[in-house]
Amino acid sequence: MRDARDRRLPRIAGPSGLVIFGVTGDLSRKKLMPAVYDLANRGLLPPGFSLVGFARRDWEDEDFAQVVRDAVRDHARTPFREEVWQQLAQGMRFVPGDFDDDTAFRQLRDAVQELDSARGTGGNFAFYLSVPPKFFPKVVQQLKKHGLTDAPEGAWRRAVIEKPFGHDLASARELNAIVHEVFDPEQVFRIDHYLGKETVQNILALRFANQMYEPLWNRSYVDHVQITMAEDIGIGGRAGYYDGIGSARDVIQNHLLQLMALTAMEEPAAFDAASLLAEKLKVLRAVKLPEDLGAHTVRGQYAPGWQGGAKVPGYLQEEGIAPTSRTDTYAALRLEVDNRRWAGVPFYLRTGKRLGRRVTEIAVVFQRAPHSPFDSTATEELGENAIVIRVQPDEGMTVRFGSKVPGTSMEIRDVSMDFAYGESFTESSPEAYERLILDVLLGDANLFPRHLEVEESWRILDPIEEYWDRNGRPAQYASGTWGPGEADEMLARDGRSWRRP
Ligand code: BG6
Fold this sequence. Notes:
With 501 residues, the protein is α/β, with parallel strands linked by helices. The protein has helices at residues 26-41, 61-75, 82-89, 102-119, 136-145, 169-182, 198-208, 239-242, 246-264, 273-286, 293-296, 421-424, 432-442, 451-470, 485-492; strands at residues 17-21, 50-55, 92-96, 125-129, 157-162, 188-191, 222-230, 287-288, 297-303, 305-307, 310-312, 330-337, 346-352, 359-366, 386-392, 396-404, 412-420, 475-478.
């Protein structure tokens, strides 16, 4: 018999519903609606699960259901099954209106009550704010005003918010204050979709479920850590969001600093949200900025170039971008974690759009062996040992080390040992949003950054952004290359070089 607490039992959400604000947006169509369907298809949603869309469109419930159906057809991960769709579609409602519109919010309240009695959602609703942050104050105030934040006895109400969580520390604090006026911190789920990726969750499994890595995971053995998030795409149609924000605010403040925190943190006392927060916060608080920001940070902007055999425009030629824009599309930083485990070990973070290829990885690069009994010619071609966590797209891990080349002489060269998800497991990985939406419905906050982490991350980034603002323009790099030469020089000055993944 299986124990009721068996972790292998599927985690199925209890009676509940999801209200999406901004339901006509890109994120909703490409990620949220397909994720809801995939969860339903995997049997992880309750039978009466309900989905309410709210937007400024003249739609009936059926029009909304059609939009969801198209989104699911185009973007879901799992196969389309009519019976799953039908069941889900019965719980779909649409509320047309503006965020200022009291009538619309009253209608939303009625819809929620109707679903409670018709579908048995039990008063449990999550409100997903897939809208620009400037609308957060209005939406949360309206939810409060119309009694939507008050759950009936024994039920829950939760808010889900998407980044950007502000554009600096001051605005993040302001935003957090607004949200916390209405929702308690435990009711707020901030999405950093990187934390929903299997490979990112695996960082903790790798480090803390095994014995063989942790003894080496410190300043005595590690030379430096490189965290790369490279994209081959440009900004696409997102000029309105991206310009003035740039790569560091877009992904370093959240995704990359979270990856760094997971890589550097101590073992949590338990695998729960409070313990994870405590350890990640300690890392972020210990992050030290370089004294010379000019020498240890680089920002760049993509120029025209070639990608996948096609000629692509530079950032300044993209639609909606002013020819004088100074927005960074590439950023590289050198940070240190000032604690006993990591003192003196640089963490190099870099990200960019229109780089050589799409890849996200964490490379822990080890010091060279302190002594070699071999002739120096034997190890001429030997690099540094490394453990590389391949976050995407080729999910897995590589361990790089030296090995003797077969033959009569002693010649040692780098080889690698690979773990690939696709080869070791038959299950395919769920999409990050599937995992995160399910966790919201289950009330499991492990994979959601709390406001203190968000604020601490801005504390790290703010001085860098201010320095960049005062100092000229980003360096140009040709699309399809690995970023500006300045970033290579930054590492070369430390006697190191970037990996070419
Ligand atoms: C988002 C950024 O958070 O992450 C985008 O806003 C970026 O600019 C995207 O393209 C990348 O996500 P993924 O999961 O494709 O690596």
